[in-house]
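pinned: reference chain
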Amino acid sequence: MKFDFSNIFLSKGVNYFSDDIVLQDVLNYLGYDIDDKLQEMGRYVSEEMIEDSIFIDHYGEPVLQMWGILDNRTDGIWISRTHQNMIDRLLDMGVVSKIASENDLMYHFISGYLISDAGLFCTLTLTGQTAYGLRKYGDARLQQFLNHYANSDHWLGATYYTEIQGGSDLGANQTTAVRSGDKYILNGENKYFASNAGLADGAIVTARMEGARPGAKGISVFFVPTLRSDGTRNYEIRRIKDKLGTIMVPTGEVVLKDSEGYLLGDEKNGIYIALEILEVSRIDDAIAAMGIARKALWEAYFYANKRTAFGKPIIDHPLMLRDLAEMESEVEASTVLSMIAADMFNKASHLKPPYDDQYHMARAFTHMAKNIASWSSDYVTRYTMEVFGGKGFLKEFPVEKFHRDSIVTSLWEGTSNIQALDFLEIVQKRGIDEKILALVWNIMDNLSSENAAMLKAAFDSVRERMVSYKNSENMEYFAKDILNMFGYLSALAYMFSVSEKTGNPGMQMAARIYYYRHFANSLATDIKFSDFRRVIDWMNTTGSEKVIEMK
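pinned: its structure tokens
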């Protein structure tokens, strides 16, 4: 008898796009024109993709094949046909091509939420931001590269920034670039955390030109094809990492040896271009983190409806219901904040250095979303394991993979400290804190009196704390507190705004719970058992109700 995946994965059959009320409401709020492909993708992820990705995670991880049978250096990644078919199918749905041909970043970001598998989507993230960089900063020759790739059956990209001696400190990069005719020759031993190595057809690479100034401002950005102009390998892969999660994306160490590269944009703006390109994957980290958390929470919700303990379904126990509702509030808040950040960056994506306030606001929201969403996902996916009890710790069931994959979203593209320091920079240099407070105030002006009063209390708390931080001897010590409190405030403001404009009572109650968690530091006694039930049931209705009935 054929194995039935629904025996271990309860949300099989949910359409992760059309059945997600929070996602639908925030997209309606943003005025996003829904593409039918997204509904197809939401169904495919639930019914097929997750099953395939969990099987590959357990039994079919990528393998580095360094040598051919004729002793030729190949440095390729061998993946299963199922793995390749998944990548191809998602590419056919436009996850990358819409960036390359239409500069539609929002479609890509929404796709990331639906796919969310941090390993599989990383392959598509890296390809998307490669397309973004080539499209925006590539010269005529690089536009030909992009057109060639876009018109081929499928292609994949990568970004090789990190070096072992520097990590997030790109100013410590030692890879060099020397001009040679219409291209550059790159040499460097230490591209240490190079995801998609062995799959990519080309990569965006940071390097330092001869005579460049020291530090980050001496960095330039290049496109390095995987094959040289004579058809030979353009760089080597030293090894593939053995990771806790994100098994589906191979992450290797790349060695550049007389590698051919092509300059992207103005060499003097290299660090700004590199970080702008990185914004795509930072938003993807936030988006994917929330997609994982939503799937984990759906699993926990379905399980809690069916699992009995002490004579009744565990969801009917007030403490469990509170746990689920509080996780729901975190997922909703971080989803709203991440989609707002995605929309802001999409609208600012035409801007180039030197950037204006529109870009810096998008950048600020990206830092807030990435940090808050990744940590929320870590909390939600870990706690949903506890909802399942001992079974949540077993690899034979999917929920543990959600947690393993969620952890990396706070590490990739800059840890939480990096996000906090970058945010602090635009506070000190651009006054972004005052601009965010003005934005929140404008939102507050359009809310009902009850919601406005709660948001005003949060607003006053943030403003008061910010004054004390600015008067401290060292603001950097409080950088993470500053990043988080502005993120919590922004998420709360947009939750109230989205809920009122879309008529979503569940989100309005979730916003109240979020307020008490992050600003009141305790749960108000006026929130009743029925309120918790209202939050968690409202967000898991429509098609999901049918799934519950089938289990």
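why pinned: The chain has a mean pLDDT of 92. The radius of gyration is 23 Å.
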